[in-house]
Fold each of these.
Amino acid sequence: MASIELVRVTKTFEKNDVIKDLHLTIADGSFTVLVGPSGCGKTTLLRMIAGIDPQTAGSVLIGGKDVTSIAPGKRGVAMVFQNYAIYPTMSVRENIEFGLKNNKVDKEERKRLVETISATVGLADYLDRKPSTLSGGQRQRVALARAMVKKPSVFLMDEPLSNLDAKLRAQMRLELIELHKQLGTTFVYVTHDQVEAMSMADNIVLMNKGVIQQEAPPDGMYHDPSNLFAAQFIGVPPMNIGELSMNGAKFGFRPERAQVRPAGQAGGTNPDHFSMTGMIVTREMLGSETLYQVRRSDGNAYMVKCLEDLFAVDQEVQIDVAPEHLFFFAEDGSRIRRDDRSYAEYMRALRGMRNG
Ligand SMILES: Nc1ncnc2c1ncn2[C@@H]1O[C@H](COP(=O)(O)OP(=O)(O)OP(=O)(O)O)[C@@H](O)[C@H]1O
Ligand SMILES: [Mg+2]
């Protein structure tokens, strides 16, 4: 087991700083998920930790020790890639054993390790099979077992589930959560899928363009985003964002926080709430909930999520969002919180757009 620390790390490709002056501490034994859009630098970061493609400047510490000059194979890390390469001509057993043979582990010990690990990942009955006779999820587990057998103190995974179908991916997510609990090893998991991040992480590190936007447990990420990027990246469907009549300022609310009722129903609206009427333009009945897209006369549309399917397309509805569920963002995307000096100004701007 080991913690990981990145200190003022920069990675430059052909004069292009993909990651600049990055600081990150990953706690020992945590399940940390690095998430962010394609090209934001997730794989680059993971490869620097593994030592496959070292940083241009700064240092990487594993277990408190600077590993900058230590070769990848000696860092105590194992990496599982998106396109896991398992050897098609070898059996499952041979695949798992491969690295051990290279490391000259004796035969008895190899046998014991392969058996424990294959039981852990649920492959005990498949040891003599060839990969071509396994399902996608089972092959994925061979790749995991092969990494685990080396007893790494840090487990690095780069989108290891992206080749699997949705159902298998959901199942493997649970298996990885259990595996992490069992092993107690530090897991660093990369994905561009925020659902995957939310479901597995103890701690989420959200990146954009090589810069960490926010670091928080899943509930903090969702309920207390630190900026506009985080607010829009986490959540399905994403947070609704609207413009305020104040240079570049924006407001937002989550689709499930809107109260929806038929327009014209009796009852006044609270001046501190965001209230609007609009027409339902789309309805997506998802089973346990229904999503409606509501378009206002100014052309802006907002998504709302309801537990009951009470409305129809072309129906006029009123939306109401209480102030505790409203978010405000300044022109530079930074969050304006309730205790911020300018909060009242944002509230006023919101009231001003009520009849607009
Ligand atoms: N060897 C390289 N040479 C030049 N540029 C590179 C190299 N590797 C990565 N980059 C650039 O660095 C940036 C970050 O790439 P990286 O692979 O880390 O992104 P990512 O977050 O893993 O994206 P994805 O979700 O698509 O896998 C990209 O703009 C990419 O084009
Ligand atoms: Mg990548």
Amino acid sequence: MLRFLHAADIHLDSPLAGLAARAGDHATTLVGATRRAFEALIAYAIEQTVDFVIIAGDLYDGDWRDFATGLAFVAGMARLERANIRVVMVRGNHDAENQMTRRLTLPPNVSVFESRKAHTLVFEGLPVAFHGRSFGNRREIENLALDYPPPRAGMLNIGVLHSSATGRPHHDTYAPCSVEDLVARGYDYWALGHVHKREVLCREPWIVFPGNLQGRDVNETGAKGATLVTVDGQRIVAVEPVVLDVVRWARCAVDVSACPDLESLGEAVRTALAGEVEAAGDRTLAVRLTLTGASPIHRRLIGDADSTEAECAAAALRAGDVWIERVVVATTDPEPPGPASSDALGALIQALDALHATPEHRESLLKSPLAPLLDKLPLEIRQAAGLAELTDGVLAGILADARAILLDRLLDAPEGR
Ligand SMILES: [Mn+2]
């Protein structure tokens, strides 16, 4: 019996997205999440006494700021060396050879594939042939799989490759290849990396993306970890996910239409989070919270965003070890005041409606002041806020929010709020 762990996309020491000052007590946990998940991988490998570990690229997130990240990796590798566990790895787009200016000597149990050409590694006493090739450049657009060496007879053949395969949403195309290209090499197992969501592309032979070790933003929800493979002779008998993340990302939508005030809304949020907290076990849960439904306090929720966020954060703290990454208020007004509700108010609402209904007004809003303001924002902030492109729908959303804020100030705000 032989057992190995297949991991990829560790992105060691990369910060989790959406971190802000308001992370408060959670900041340290969130900042250190990828490092702690890596340590969990090492601990698991030792505890399970696996024969070797494969890292299929993007071990690092990019060039190190200092040597601390590289030293953390060496520390993990040294622990595996003492446990007689071998490590075989390729570099991916994030840690391509030309991306990294700093170097550290790795312990002898660690082998990194060269980037010049696909080649085969074999080790004494291990009936396994590893075939692989690292990324030399960040942008590797060739189909690297085509040049992988033929399988070795009488051995378990494993291909290690960082690749977008046939293409996956939200992932740049690197070293693209088809499932057929991989099957045609005649290997027993393809240890892929790059795609952050776990996926088994094929079972005969096994072609596996283990997903990343630790989710890094709200698009990487659910359990994360590595894949444990069991081999009997030359036959793979089990391929199982192993959960190793220390922070779990989730999206949670809460219908707050039955909540007449912030207090009851907090209670609804706390209840809604209970299931996610349970699923996350003893990990920190990072949540994108979306409030939905026709809410009697819709205008208040938008008009006093600070109170809304703080109330949700308070509810989250009561639910467990939960950090709210963002609160999205997607509620609607159950009784929107009409244009005829009162003279002055009616005129204001008519003016607001006209802003969107009239093409000239829409045009002028888009040209200024919105577009120049948005141009000043970095693209990633615009994307995070859903403002990457200033479409008609986006403009309608901004105007609806502006309307709610104005009406909240005029109609609902108590003195001095
Ligand atoms: Mn990656």
